[in-house]
Amino acid sequence: MKKLKGFTLLELIVVIAIIGILAAFLVPSFMGYVKNARASRFNANARSVYSAAQLAIVDMNVAQVEVLPNCIYTGSSDGIAHPDGGVGNSFTLLTYLGEDFEGNFLFVTNIDGSGCTYALWSEQTIPASASAQLTIQDVKSSFQNSTPKGCHPLKASS
User: Fold this and answer.
1) Torsion 10-11-17-21 (CA) sign
2) Which regions of 7-79 does DSSP assign to beta strands (E)?
3) Cα angle, residue 66 at apex, residues 61 and 70 outer, rounded to 5°
């Protein structure tokens, strides 16, 4: 008679229990890494908008086209930055962001309109009322609400 080889039910239960215990430790850790990676991606996109806004503002100033000081500019995937309230010149960031740019942005010009103070980026529309500069904690906690966003430069933590 041939003896059957294999695992006993007890051995299978022990292996499944070990896998369950490992998963209980690793899944929360993995989720933290995913959240940090997503925040980094949003901040990198905000950095791209910030750089593009700086370059566009310099070009606008060289061309002697007025850029409003202390103004909130918003835009979307078309790359056109519109001043809040519709008063003032709109201009494009697409030249600096590239044709493949996607997402929504907001940036704030500095006190004399010669540069950008900070920029925000999101997959959803960012209303001008949400124009506060964010800390890294603000960015991470924004993933808990309906409009997650990244910021560059990040505000120092209080």
Assistant:
1) positive
2) 72-75
3) 100
Phi, psi angle pair for 81, to nearest 5°: -90, 120
3-class SS letters over 84-153: CCCCCCCEECHHHHCCCCCCEEEEEECCCCCCEEEEEEECCCCCHHHCCCCCHHHHHHHCCCCCCEEEEC
Asked if 87 and 103 touch (Cβ cutoff 8 Å), the reply is no
pTM of the model: 0.82
pLDDT tens string 44-75: 999 999 999 999 999 999 999 889 999 999 99
pLDDT band at 35 (very low <50, low <70, confident <90, very high): confident
The C-alpha atoms of residue 158 and residue 154 are separated, in whole angstroms, by 12
3-state DSSP percent of the chain in helix, strand and coil, to 5: 45, 15, 40
Average pLDDT score, the chain = 91
Q: What is the pLDDT of residue 7?
A: 83
- Tell me the torsion sign for CA atoms 70, 136, 149, 57: positive
Residues 104, 78: contact at Cβ < 8 Å?
Answer: no
Query: Within 10 Å of residue 101's Cβ, how many Cβ atoms?
Result: 20
> In this model, does residue 14 exceed pLDDT 70?
yes
